[in-house]
Description:
By secondary structure, the chain is an alpha+beta fold.
Amino acid sequence: MDMIDFKTLPISKRVYQETYPILLPVSEWEFKKHQKFWLVDNIFKEGGLDLLKEMAQCYPIVDNNNADDDWDHNPFKVFHLPYWITAPICEAVREFVLREYFHQGPELQLIDERLSEWGNIYVKEDCRPLVNSCIPHVDFPHDEGWIANLWLSQHEEKETGTNLYDFKGAIDEGRFDFQLDSRHQRYTEWHSWVGDGKNHTQGFQNLTRDKAFHWGFRKIEEAPCKYGTMTIYNGNTPHCPFIDDSVQWRWSHAFGFKYKSLARVFNTQEVQF
């Protein structure tokens, strides 16, 4: 092994933390509220987005999710960044949600708050997702919370993004009734299609309108992939990616802010975004 096999970050940890803030204050972010998500712009200081991308490319893929022995529902290659890099963004997403959803300041503390992050990379020629990866999912089966997708690759309008859905049935611990209830008219069909949950397909498969309706989903809107912006939505709104066949690769980084459901704590119904 030689030193050439290692990567060096463009700036040191100390300089990044102490003297190189990459974000603008949340109060200066520009955003538009849609039915199911916020589209947020003007997030970074000059050069901040480029620096984040340069640093991110120093870290390896940790989950392929396209090999025969990968059984994750996520159809993308995944990598993680250390908390000292992503902490400013995670904390800013938290502040934004507290401000815009709860109408409170960052001093508000929810029950069992947790922040997370992961990078998602789609490569068309490598994509072999699970057959059911096109079906919408929720991110926090035991909690409540929000996802902020930061878009880091450039695409034409409508080429790719996130579809957000309503579901006409019941959801229990992050799973849909047709997956759990043996009395459901689609239960046998679902388990016959999915099999042991380890079956891969060649190439990314978008969820068509007819197939969505078949499983009980109705698309509400599309959260677009616009370079340098964030789309922030409730992680328990059923959602899935859409990727046009013309897209060769896609890169986003997700930041999660979750907490214990107030409805679970107080046994009440929680208001949804």
